[in-house]
Amino acid sequence: MEKLLLLGAEAIAQGAIDGGMSGIYAYPGTPSTEITEYVQNNKLAVERKLHSQWSANEKTAMEAALGMSYAGKRAMVCMKHVGLNVAADAFINSAITGVNGGLLVTVADDPSMHSSQNEQDSRFFGKFAMIPILEPANQQEAYDMAYEGFELSEKFKIPVLIRITTRLSHSRSGVQRREIKQENPLTYPEDPIQFVLLPSNARKRYKGLLGIQSMLEQESENSVYNTYIPGRDKSLGIIACGIAFNYLKENFITSKCSHPILQINQYPLPYSKVEKIVDECEKVLVLEDGYPFVEEQLRGFLNINSKIIGRLNGTVPRDGELNPDIVAKALGKEVKQGLPVPKVVANRPPELCSGCSHRDIYNALNETMKEFGKQKVFSDIGCYTLGALPPWNSINSCVDMGASITMAKGAADAGVRPSIAVIGDSTFTHSGMTALLDCVYENTPVTIIISDNATTAMTGGQASHATGKLEEICLGLGVKTDHVRVLTPLPKYHDEMVKTLREEFLYEGVSVIIPRRECIVQSVAKNKREAKSKKAEVAQ
Amino acid sequence: MKSDIILSGVGGQGILSIAATIGMAALENHLQLKQAEIHGMSQRGGAVQSHLRISEKEIASDLIPMGKADLIISVEPMESLRYLPWLSETGWLVTNTTPFVNIQDYPDMKELLSEIEKVPNHIAINADEIARHVKSMRSSNIVMLGAASPFLDLPYESLEIGIKKIFERKGEKVVQFNLDALKAGREFALKHSPVAKN
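Above: the input entities. Below: the structure tokens describing the complete assembly.
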């Protein structure tokens, strides 16, 4: 089979396609977006008509993937780490229902928060759900684990979690493809009530899940991904999980590592392999990208056997992404930096693009707020979150998808006037609609600005479920016609925007203002495409 | 053969096209490759970098350790300095001198250039001007790749093949502009650096 140059994210997608996947479900989120985009553009996936359209949010994606699995087909759902919080209800319960066709839940964590609000470690969620976790160390393993993961899922009839981090997701390397598998035929679950989690059946299903735990552990014990590498110098043993193994290896390019190493890429933890390295070594260093997930389990609350070192005792920094230098320091090796960064180098944070519609709405908002005071604007997750930075300093919150509206509601309930939410169109349909319904239910005095750029911009311009439907959605949820106001965010309409904002801020009820102008990046790209096709027409 | 390269610039300046071209050239020569990119938030006009590693042998880490980079290729002068802790003692800094000013406290150019001068092995090149000169305004990134090409352990022809493959779908004209830009950058480096390998 051919060898491809793929990002870790793309390797997972290719592995899933070749492994017989029938559909992928996801909401875009860095660093996971490229998995679904790859399937959308892959020739074989298109030929096979694999499902790859975006979902409204991670919960709907998780549920749809579970439905596909119910029908006997192999499905993948993917998301960024915080997306798993949104999907958590369906995710945890999918371990209780179990699966029919293989189901892979791929979650991309973001240690160091390159593009996220936190650096939560999804392995905890995998353990919480009591399902196997696969954590590839490199692009080839990312491919292989997605390819083989469906079989593991079908063997135990439960979902399998694939956990990657930003670095692997966004790093490219050669990947060897394997034989392409056929898709599963459509079949119904053998037991018609397998998926019915009424307490009587849920208790039965849960006991079943508990019952297979020792088998999952045995599976980890025998897994080719959990390798014990012997070493003579037992003053230290090293456990390296996922991508941490690469950083460890980087420190032994010229000399062989004399310490025993246990590489763990499949969970639950392989008991006897862990026991062996802990028993035979004086100290055990745990290297893992993310939270001290393995380290904490090995130490235990009382830390009776105090030979475990890592993030919890300061050998490795408690937070942030690992790299070869951090691992070198943990091994007591010297890190030789090059020249220092000269003092003249200034920070260059990301910013709203020139010509972006959010700029115009923030300019109007800032001017209007001069009359109404500070710290009354709640916002959300998207490009417009950059409005928190200078020169705008327009917003006062960014917590989770949809939170702007509900936080504005709570603040209004507490007496804040005006209480304002700024949210994007895609974020609104992701998790803002139910929040708006809460406001409508009580006619809470809030002004919700849905800055509509007709795309999911921050993650690279994926289609937005909201496009062309926002007014109808808001009216349908019960917002009064007079208080759904559409604006065109351009500098020439600045005064009109300020006037409309002022009117709605003074209204003691639910207002929705929709400043609508296409994302400038998408609009430029579209114009270019159109010009090119026109040119081609002329040439013909 | 082993080459550890840091590419730097501002989101949207085309460092990923440089990386893709070198990557393609590396594959052409049957070399191993790892390339860590930045996607997401920083692409909105923020500082971006990519670690590109090519080698005859298996590559372990996706990230280059500090003090080990053989080459920094920067399409922006201030960004070239941000990654100096990664540059090895014998490594080369190859940077564009045209600033991309999108922040209020952008430093004084003279100060920046004097910091670049302090790096023992450096080539500073006005890639935007050279790109204009070869009538390929938007290829300053490929001018930079050309300027760095004497320090890459890859045959120049492989880079040309890389450019053809990467820009193929954009049409012949774009390919030719980029080939011209590559050549102009290389010629500048060879003329201004006595140690640049041919």
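Note for the figure: Chain B touches chain A through 53 residues (CB under 8 Å).
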